[in-house]
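Throughout our pipeline, every protein is held as a single compact record rather than as scattered files. The record that follows is passed on verbatim for readers who wish to inspect the format.
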Amino acid sequence: MVDNPHGAMFRVIVPNQHSRVTNAELFFDLVFVFGVTQLSHTLLHDFTPLGAVQVTLLFLAVWWVWVYTTWVTNWLNPELTPVRILLFLLMLGGLVLSTSIPTAFEGRGLWFAIAYAAMQVGRTLFWLLATPAHRTAVRHNAIRILTWLSSSAVFWILGGFAEGETRLWLWVVALTIEYVAPAARFWTPKLGFSSIEAWSVEGGHMAERCSLFVIIALGEAIVVDGATFAELTWTGENVAAFVSALAASIAMWWIYFHKGAEAGAEMISRSAESGRVARLAYTYLHMPIVGGIILTAVADELVLKHPTGHSDIKIIVSAVGGPLLFLIGTILFKYAIRNFLQLSHGVGIIALAVAAYFAHDMSPLMLSILTSAIMIVVAAWESISLRSPAEE
């Protein structure tokens, strides 16, 4: 990873120099803008306990295929034509994956499974073939991951052929295999466990890539809000709901980016165990952050369309659960990079839990305004508490 010998497809890593995110990677991310939109719309149209479980599983799959690609492009150089072609093929797979989301548990389950398995296995096989023979540790890691992903692919495909509850359980098994794999350090017979040292990453690049996915989710929420608002007859209530939704998105951006994203990038760039930090803080702990933004987008659309009356369980779960999930993710992420729990986030979590208790007696608009206000307070509190002397 450090020397790029004889045309190998790995990035050239220069000490103390941040590897930039390439245009090819940004282009690849556009597919996942569509994927995030599909997830929020699918949940909105089937907001039942079973629908929520199914969309959660699909979200975990979408996140996992994206984050694995981010790891691989942290090592391989997307400026090189073969790696670019890999990303473009993954875009094709991602489009099939995303278009299959609304009916993944109906008629297009096999399409979803094939696209997902092909992306996971194909990308890892490319990485293995692109690794020079003398880089034994990297090749062994690629073989380990290929073994785990090939095993899970069997359950994805079997689930694609199955129907109903059987499909759900087979896909749960497949995802469990994939999510356990990094924690188990991809143990395989003969090769054993991978070492943490073998998973070093260019920290600044990894942090920026995950920050961009947060931007994708926030951008999708704003697009959904704007599209929904444009179709409505404008009244005082839905204008207020639109402003509240935008304020919540801005607060989420502020909470994540004002201090946290920069601190995370600095910390992982300095860390001697960048692979361990990337696995915990970026691979796992960003899931609730992104999931919370998507759930909040669902709440925004519900409130925009029905701002008055009593809040039902769908609005309560999404309007409170989205910000709550986001704050849980950010407090854990910031704990992983700062090693202390952010008091503002903890108070915000408690305040949202209290709001949930009284939410049934509020209108959807009032609940939206309350949760947005809580997020604004958390953002302002953190900014003030972490203000440096140079900013005063």
